[in-house]
Each structure stands twice: as C-alpha cells, then as structure tokens.
Write a structure and sequence with these properties.
Number of strands: 0
Distance between the termini: 25 Å
Radius of gyration: 18 Å
Largest sheet: none
Order of helices and strands: HHHHHHHHHHHH
Number of helices: 12
Helix content: over 70%
Strand content: under 5%
Length: about 270
C-alpha cells in the first residue's frame, strides 16, 4: 500500500490527484477482472448493486484522499481521515474496555500522524469526506465479504467505479502519452488496491466491523516500521509512544464471537 502511495504522489506532477485516483481504480479493475473473471451472476440483481455501490464509495474515498494530501500535510490528512474508522469502532464498542482501547488507538494515531493545523479549508473538507467514505467502505465491504461475492465483488465494484468516475480521466492526459507513466498508474492500482483490498475481504469475513476498524489503525504503524527498516527513518519519541498505544489498543479490544453463519472461503 505505501509503495503504491509513493508512486501516486510522484504522478501528481503529470496528472491531477483525482486523475491519479481514477488511474488507480482503472488499474485495479483491469487486473481484478483478468484475474477473477466474475460469473454472470455477479453482474445482475442485488449482488451487482451492492458491489457497484461498494466500488463507487471506495473509488470516491481514494479521490477525496488524494485531493486532501495535495493540499494538507500527509499526517494531518491521515488523522482526519481516520475519523471514519473511529466512528465505526465507536458504534461497535460494547464495554469500558472497548472504549479505553478505542481512546488508546485514537491517541496513538494522532501521535504518529504528527498533526499540524495548517493547510486549506478545502483540504480539510476533502479529508473529512474521505473519512465518511472510509466508514462506508467498512460497512459495505463487510456486506460484500459476507454476501459471498468477496474478491469477485471487488472486481465488479471497481469496474463500476471506473465507469462512473470516468470524467476524471480528463485529468490524466499526459499519462497516456508515456507507456512508463501508464504502467506506473496501473501499478498504483495493484499495490494500493488489489493486494490490500483483497486481503481486507479475507479479514472482513473473520472479524466484525468494529474490530476491523481498529485493525486499520495498524496502517500508520506499518508505515513507520517500513520507514525505519528500509528508509532508516528513526521515529521520534511521540511516534514510538503512538505506535505502542495503537498496538495496545488493538490488543485490548474485547474478542468478538465469530459468525458461524458465514461460509468459509474455498481453500
């Protein structure tokens, strides 16, 4: 995911942020459709409507987030966007232990993100919009996973999202004149969408929405670990404490009863 984000930021100089997000959606759709080849039943009825709604919300989330990081410090945008998963986790908190775990995670994310109150009001609005879409991604993603469509639903959803958001392709003009840039755009879709979102579907089949929302807090933690191991970026004391707080919060949350009505995915 973070390798894809690095590539995406590099493309902002030749395409609009929204255009890069559309390329990400296109790349994901092409790869997923070639890989899964969803059956005809995935393109009809309520299954199609659910997958399409999921794809549009997810693609919109990516567009809003890219527009936010084009105007705000990355840490600020990440912290604001995380309001979406926090809201989902808050509604799923059943005990004082869960509430305490949620507070630990929120404090940890804020410490890791190094929030600075600067940037444009429009950037803040984009980030909050991405937060709302992220909450929608969790809620709809759970239904796609449990409904049995899983990764096939991802393929259909991103195909629908690509078509619905196709006007954003006008912001990608320079990319089409360079095979290298086009390949990078598709690569963003593979790294930032196909791999992590397919894994999300596996996790969502086994975890409740609230627990999954808290698990998403591990994203900035893994980013810090990658930065330390590969880029030799030593975390500051607040970042280190924030990492510990996130891990502790995720570990402290009450275990959830597994839904035995959900069929196991084929081996």
């Amino acid at each position: 995911m973070y390798a894809g984000a690095a590539v995406a930021v590099g493309l902002f100089s030749v395409a609009s942020p929204a255009g890069v997000a559309w390329l990400r959606c296109l790349g994901a759709a092409v790869v997923l459709l070639a890989w899964r080849r969803p059956p005809r039943s995935a393109w009809t009825g309520r299954v199609f409507l659910l997958s399409g709604a999921f794809g549009i919300v997810t693609a919109g989330m990516n567009v809003l987030f890219y527009e936010a990081i084009a105007r705000l410090p990355l840490g600020t945008a990440v912290a604001l966007e995380f309001a979406g998963p926090v809201l989902v986790a808050a509604f799923g908190s059943r005990t004082r232990r869960d509430v305490f775990a949620l507070l630990l995670v929120v404090a940890g994310v804020v410490a890791i993100a190094d929030v600075r109150l600067e940037g444009s009001l429009l950037g803040v609005l984009f980030a909050l919009g991405a937060a709302a879409a992220w909450a929608g991604y969790i809620l709809l993603g759970k239904r796609v996973a449990v409904g049995g469509t899983g990764i096939d639903g991802l393929a259909v959803g991103f195909a629908v999202g690509t078509v619905v958001l196709s006007p954003l392709a006008f912001g990608t003009g320079a990319v089409w004149g360079s095979p290298r840039l086009l390949l990078l755009g598709i690569g963003v879709g593979v790294l930032s969408t196909v791999v992590p979102y397919a894994l999300d579907q596996v996790v969502l089949r086994r975890a409740g929405q609230a627990r999954f929302a808290l698990l998403l807090a591990l994203l900035p933690v893994t980013a810090g670990v990658v930065g330390f191991l590969w880029l030799k970026q030593v975390p500051t004391l607040p970042e280190a404490l924030g990492t510990l707080a996130v891990v502790a919060g995720v570990a402290l949350r009450s275990p959830e009863k597994r839904d035995r009505t959900v069929a196991e995915p084929p081996a």
